[in-house]
Prior knowledge:
Shape: elongated
Helix content: under 10%
Radius of gyration: 20 Å
Strand content: 35-45%
Largest sheet: 4 strands, antiparallel
Low-confidence stretches: none
Distance between the termini: 51 Å
Number of strands: 13
Mean pLDDT: 86
Amino acid sequence: FYRPDWDVDHSSFATDIRPAIADHERWDFRLENLGTQIAELSFEGLDLLPMDQQVFLINRQNAQAFDLRSNPNYEFVPSSDNMNFTISVGSAEQVQNFMSSITPEVPFMSQNYPNPFNPITTVSYALPKASGVSLIVYDLQGNMVRVLRSEFQSAGWYECSWDGLNNSGLPVSTGIYLTRLHTGSYIQTIKMLYLK
């Protein structure tokens, strides 16, 4: 936590103390020099907060939120050397409003759900800024199977469903398919298993 008001020479701390929470409070912090090993954040004292307040940790890299009331330990594999996080505390409505306003720092695509699937699966992705987007399904030989999206989109979260049909409207065979998100210079691919 960055607190230059505590000590001018040493302004980063592993512990932070804040006054009582009014309606909604947020804490932004950065983890540095993470390396590639599994890292864990642990939070204590959550039982001291009023029970009607939600407590969420938000990974700013991909804008994913984790309910710290359900599990006060967050284990993750760092996606970069430095990562930004936010803790949001408040009523359910205030925390949800805050979280819905967050977009990730980099484009991000979640694993499809359900996976394996039949007949429909959904892919979620997020854009930190407006850009052209292509979301395309390929077979394992690299042949294009279905164009799910090919358009300019604003920053935000999106969902797209695939019904197991190719561009001609015909059902595909059982097997593994690759979905590729391409926006700007960012490309991410996920594997999906279609079962009949």
